[in-house]
């Protein structure tokens, strides 16, 4: 589909970046440095993301210091242990690693690989050459749903845009949240002041061993309702 608004845009290339950007863990190159200029380019792209009330309260902490990454890695592993033991809030939501999907469920097709890659990152997180922590000015976890939605909507799109911009440049990343279980300790390590909220930890490295491809997913039609929950078109 093409119209005046999309003229001159290479939709195939855009769609490929969108379809193949995902959390990469085992295929992060742990030995090749990522230029600071490339990280800044990706952040520049991300600064075009939506921001509530045009507040632009983003801050981005880029960590390349080996000692700091080692300390972050320790927190990451502690967080992963809590998750695997079912001691985080996610255990109440169903968002946990499961082996009970039906054989034809697209989630079942790659669960073995997902688990192996997650373990690999847990073991090697401190060796990933760049850690990037997007932060947002403000504290809002105790606020109403409207406020939380507006605030998270002012930082998570920027974090995702960083992953997309990196992917377009041959660099991979992973969306990780274990360190949020130790946000205070992370703030102490990195000098993040009170009044800022950490959104995610992105381990960043060059992609190795070939290209990425679309993952098995449900179809849009099977997940989409029109005008009312449960209604199809």
Explain this structure to me?
This protein has 233 residues and is an alpha+beta fold. The protein has a single domain, classed as NADH Oxidase, CATH 3.40.109.10. Helices cover 37% and strands 11% of the residues. The chain contains eight helices and five strands; from the N terminus they run H-H-E-H-H-E-H-H-E-H-E-E-H. Strands 1, 2, 3, 4 and 5 form a five-stranded antiparallel β-sheet that branches. Helix 2 (36-46) packs across helix 6. The relative contact order is 0.21.
Helix content: 25-40%
For the sheet with most strands, the description reads: 5 strands, antiparallel
H-E order:
HHEHHEHHEHEEH
> What percentage of amino acids are in beta strands?
5-15%
Question: What is the CATH H-level superfamily?
Answer: NADH Oxidase
Strand pairing plus helix content: what structural class?
A: alpha+beta
CATH topology: NADH Oxidase
Give the overall shape: globular
Total of helices = 8
Please report the total strand number as a whole number.
5
Instruction: Please tell me the overall pLDDT.
Output: 93
Report the end-to-end length measured between terminal Cα atoms: 20 Å
Rounded to the nearest angstrom, the radius of gyration is 19 Å
Which runs of at least 5 residues are low in confidence (pLDDT < 50)?
none
Query: What is the second-level CATH architecture?
Result: 3-Layer(aba) Sandwich
**Integer count of domains:** 1
Report the CATH C-level class: Alpha Beta
